[in-house]
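Q: Got a minute? One more chain.
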Amino acid sequence: MTSIWDASTLPQLDTAHGPPPEECDVVVVGAGVVGLSAAVRLARAGRRVAVVADGEPGGGTTGRSTGKLTLLQGTRLSQVRHGALLEVAGAYLQAGRVGLDWLAALGLPEGEAWRTAPAYTAATTEDGAAKVQAEFETASALGLPVQRADASESPFPAELVVRLDGQLMADPMVLVARLVEEAVAAGAIFVTGCRATRVEVDGDLVHLTTERGSLRAGHAIIATGSPIVDRGGDFARLKASRSRVAVFRVPSGTLRGMHLTVDAEPRSLRPVTRDGVDYLLAAGSASVVGRAHSTAALAEELQAAVLERFPEAEPMAAWAAQDYESLDGAPYAGPVGSSGRIHVATGFGKWGLTVGAAAALAVAEGILDHRPDWADRLFDRRPTLGDAATAISWNAQVAGRLVSGLASSAVIGDRELEEGEGRVEVDGVHPVAVSRVDGTERKVSAICTHLGGVLAWNDAECSWDCPLHGSRFAADGRRLEGPAERDLEPRDRP
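A: Always. Here it is, folded:
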């Protein structure tokens, strides 16, 4: 089992493997919950919509998520309030409500793929308890009906627990399938397995270049996590984080509700039922992309933590999910650049299902000239001094990684690589990424095709990851995700 989620529900798409249409009103790049929600709203409004995705719908962060749909998101509200204002935190909460209502209106029946459940935020330390208390106070001030819960309701040894009833757990791929169905029914065209490589504005039109040809549109929505276009300085305002996810088979009734700790090492737990069998889904052990010494060790750390708490659990599957954090905890969504023709939606942290759907609707309504007031308050917020300080810190780390990556490149080593190993060597003056996967040794450029960062080996997923802005590449150099547009060049040892 490589994932617990059910991709078999995805409908067949007649246009998926052909070229993009020559023109449309709006082209959406990305087919997760964000891109699909925007496509559905605009197609229902009568716009000609084309969705371009470099994989299958839901094949990115959406399909690797934990499927939690809740307004209680750890300490997110208090983080946004601290980084901005209570008014902005209120707009963020309203966005969450809009996103939940939108997804609930899709009409998925209550069952294994769509279940109502309470959400819990817990602290296991005094420092964590202070954070939970701040979240409780902020949520209460904004009218969210949170309650203090008894410690016995948490699977963690909790100092303080807060509960919010009536939240939702979903199979994200079933959600994706329903959104695809709605988009197709409204007239949207899908082009999948097709990478978008360039977006340009020419007067009143956007030109999108893809691997299978180009198209013209009145507007483009870039819903790819880290946008392939950077007219808004997004790279400087985002940090790419990768979390480990693991699924365990457990006895019936092991866990009730969704649980999240807010301590130094946050842990997320939720139950999943598939075909009558109960599972426990755990997430955590996050790291900045390309900066972990060993991602395999982080995955093992998460598994060990779950087995310590639930010794009867049987490991069944593991993967990782990539998210993008903003400077102040609130997402970015809307037009970038002076033309008003290119739009982005990103920076959701780990809450892209709920708030991402709302951001997509805000972008769509903006194109339709009906942008809601809450979106103005949330997405047009002014940057603060704290944002500036965080940006300086993040970009200093990026600059440091750029220099240290070049300095630490190894000379060609004599030791043969073991299966699943990778290292950066120097061939003359060129860093070379050498790896051995499935018995084959491969050599590609070790320089990211985005902004020139030296790549690091991800030993859990056998990929080359960039510590600058989160681009990732397969062992053979094929681009996997992130802002990079091109594959890595092959290198041969002389």
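A: The CA atoms of residues 330 and 474 lie 31 Å apart.
Q: Perfect, thanks.
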